[in-house]
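tool=predict chain=A
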Amino acid sequence: MAPIEEVLRPRNMVANVIVKLSHLPKPVLVGLTFVIVGCVATVDFLTGYEISCTVFYLVAIGLATWYVGASFGSLVSVISAWVTTIISLVSGQHYYNRFAPIWNAAIVLSFYFIVVWLLSRLRQTHETLEQRVKERTASLSSELAERRRLENEILAIGEREQRRIGLDIHDSLCQHLTGTALAEQFLVEKLAARDVPEVNDANRVVGLIEDAISMAHGIASGLFPLEGDGEGLPAALSELAAHFSSRFKVACRFHLAEPVRIQDTVVANHLYRIAQEAVNNAIRHGHATKIDIQLARVGLELQLVISDDGSGIPANKPIHPGMGLRNMKYRASIIGGSLTLGGGESGATVMCSFPESAPNLSK
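tool=predict ok
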């Protein structure tokens, strides 16, 4: 055993005894106090008046004062002083002054009373500190809960705004671009009927508008990928992989070994955002050309794993968590999971593990 453990073991034993005594009922503590007084008095009588056991009565006095109260501690002090005086007289101790036993008992009793007073004050201070700690802990818990609520609310507001923007793009911009493409197509047909040489340029403009429509649809889908419940997460992740593949010319694929049901839309949305951020980081920072997104069940947990073949994480370079990584970790914590980042000189892996019975955050 390490030296520090050897030092701390006696303290832990004492702390355990104190905790166990604090849970005992007061009648049991009163009985234990008198048992200790009786044991000390027996030893005091057997050793005779030449060996004083006065200090050992403090065990019972301390127990009585700390766990029962100052009044009971004072009573035990009087009993202990009276018992030790009687035992000294019965043991054969002779006094030339008849007031000497009374004086000695008064001195011992005064010492006991001082100990009772100090212990009672210490007990009051201890209880005051405990109360302050409880109040401060409750206050901190309340502040943390409020902070978490505000963070969740801000995150929800952001999601709602993204949803609104996505719907606006889908319902307004896409429709407008579609109308423009139709008008341009009609113009192409008129130019073709007149055999105008600019018809090829007009066809290219139609192609650009159609590309813009596809890009707008992709942006709208990325802003609000899930409709209804969270069971559409696999389809959304598959569409996400296809979007990144076409936009950035990378091999991004989604793998689903077995059907996974995530009914909570909020949980599914957090997982989608984690995958979206991880893929984005792999392309922009890792310069990856191949990215795999996998959603699988492992035991009682579900795992979302995003792995790539990018530049990886050098072993001698510390990881400085940016806003994206902090955001992913926070989203993982909201759904009751954890997020780990791994990799070496080549490639990186982001894994979000969360319980299959994730909390229902939609309520």
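Residues 257 and 325 are 26 Å apart (CA to CA). The mean pLDDT is 82.
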